[in-house]
From TrEMBL:
Belongs to the DEAD box helicase family. Gene3D superfamilies: P-loop containing nucleotide triphosphate hydrolases (3.40.50.300). Its EC number is 3.6.4.13. Keywords: ATP-binding, Helicase, Hydrolase, Nucleotide-binding, RNA-binding. The Q motif is unique to and characteristic of the DEAD box family of RNA helicases and controls ATP binding and hydrolysis. A motif (Q motif) lies at residues 50-79. RNA helicase. The lineage of its organism: Eukaryota, Viridiplantae, Streptophyta, Embryophyta, Tracheophyta. InterPro entries: DEAD/DEAH_box_helicase_dom, Helicase_ATP-bd, P-loop_NTPase, RNA_helicase_DEAD_Q_motif. PANTHER family: RNA HELICASE. It is an enzyme of class 3 (hydrolase). This is ATP-dependent RNA helicase.
Length: 243
């Protein structure tokens, strides 16, 4: 795992706790911005965002953030990582943050921002360690992207009552696909999920997935397939503990 982490052109960040909260549980405001700083990577200067408008999100995404999600401004991890995820040359990123810090918003916004809603094909993939986390992340993405017209498929093992042979499954046309590594591997292997147009690949709770052999094998196979077929794909690892 350590060797794989070193192979990607990645910047590792450790983000302090964010204790904020106002106007309901989803809001991750924090009045103390003293630990939010400009970060440099590979000659590129990334200035931390003090507002969501700073990262030049579309009006549709801003409406989703403010009206649907109730967010007013970025949490610490969002302020630091969003400029890195959304600014060319779209470098690979490893970011560490605890649950509740706002890391889901980081990669969901990253995927929604990189996707062209007019192209009906997969352009962003998020790999999760569990079915429940994949479904939760899809729910957040659909709320945040409510006004964008972007669609999302959830690639998880189907319930027995919903089972369909993969041979009868239609090719995926959703712009975003969120799922578990095993199901994603099956979809790719059976040519139901094309990877040639993938712009961003996200590993949520990557430390858990890459620590377990089964998850690790499938996850690295997916990453290799995407990097071979979609040159220039940005890879983002979100971790709770370092590799």
């Amino acid at each position: 795992v350590e060797a794989q982490a070193k192979q990607i052109e990645a910047l590792s960040l450790s983000v302090p706790d964010d204790d904020g909260g106002a106007e309901g549980p989803p809001l991750l405001d924090d009045s103390d911005d003293s630990q939010i700083q400009a970060v440099t990577s590979g000659g590129t200067v990334y200035e931390s965002a003090t507002t969501f408008e700073d990262v030049k999100l579309t009006p549709e995404l801003l409406k989703g953030l403010h009206d649907e999600m109730g967010f007013s401004r970025p949490s610490k991890i969002q302020a630091i990582t969003l400029p890195m995820i959304l600014t060319p040359p779209y470098r690979d990123l490893v970011a560490q943050a605890h649950n509740g810090s706002g890391k889901t918003t980081c990669f969901v916004l990253g995927m929604l921002s990189r996707v062209d809603p007019n192209r009906k094909m997969p352009q962003a993939i998020c790999i999760c360690p569990t079915r429940e986390l994949a479904q939760q992340n899809k729910s957040v993405l659909m709320r945040m992207g409510k006004f964008t017209g972007i669609t999302c498929a959830c690639a998880t093992p189907p319930a027995q009552k919903d089972y369909m042979p993969i041979s009868k499954m239609a090719p995926v046309t959703d712009q975003v696909v969120i799922g578990t590594s095993g199901t994603l591997t099956k979809w790719i292997t059976h040519k139901k999920l094309a990877t040639r147009e993938i712009k961003i690949l996200v590993f949520d709770e990557a430390d858990h997935m890459l620590a377990e052999e089964g998850f690790k094998t499938d996850s690295l196979r997916i990453m290799k397939d995407i990097q071979n077929s979609a040159g220039g794909c940005q890879v983002t690892f979100l971790v709770i503990d370092y590799f």
